[in-house]
Amino acid sequence: MRAGLATALLLLLPVAAAAQESPTDAPPVTYSHARIDLGLIVQDVDRALTFYEGALGLKRAYGFEVGGDFAKQAGLTEGDPLHVVALRLTDHPDAPILKLVRTGEPAADRPRFITDRSGVRYLTINVTALAPLLERLQMFQVPVLGDGPVRMGNGEYLALVQDPDGVFIELIGPMTAPAAP
Q1: Residue 106 DSSP symbol
Q2: Class assignment of domain 35-105?
């Protein structure tokens, strides 16, 4: 029986490998940035900014408006204008950008777990010391979910929180900053 299963798996390997290969005639892609930016659709930008700027301490990079005509032509909306505020963890120009985009749609039911829906459901932010951020979150009345922070195997902790629209944020790091050398 094991030989039959092994043979079947060996026969399927070329099929699985072929499915993962890119066409050899596909033109190469060259990217202009070494980062991927992420856009979050939020119900209320001010409330989202209180969470991301205030509670998490992200820094505002820039903001802009997208006119309704352009948004419709680009396939972004049915003609509704967009208000976008971009944030980053640091002021470094290569830091990934988190774009908060306002929509008038009411939020759907708030997810309870990261696996409740498909698509982008959570962000991971690594910190040098979790304790000061947990104190900051408490000041902004942002609860840590589950029994967190939970100790991970490498001496770091994981604390899970949610933004006002239900996006989960994993916060990972040691409780205190490592001692300076």
Answers
A1: P
A2: alpha beta
Do residues 49 and 100 make contact, with C-beta atoms less than 8 angstroms apart?
yes
| Separation CA 178–CA 158 (nearest Å) | 17
Quick check: helix, strand or coil at residue 6? helix
Q: What pLDDT is stored for residue 97 in this prediction?
A: 93
Task: For the chain, give every domain's residue range.
Answer: 35-105, 114-181
- The reported pTM is 0.74
In degrees and rounded to multiples of 5, residue 150 shows phi and psi of: -110, 130
Contacts of 65 (CB under 8 A, 6+ apart): 81, 82, 83, 84
Strands (E), the chain: 38-42, 59-66, 82-88, 98-102, 122-126, 150-151, 157-162, 168-173
160 bridge partner residues: 170
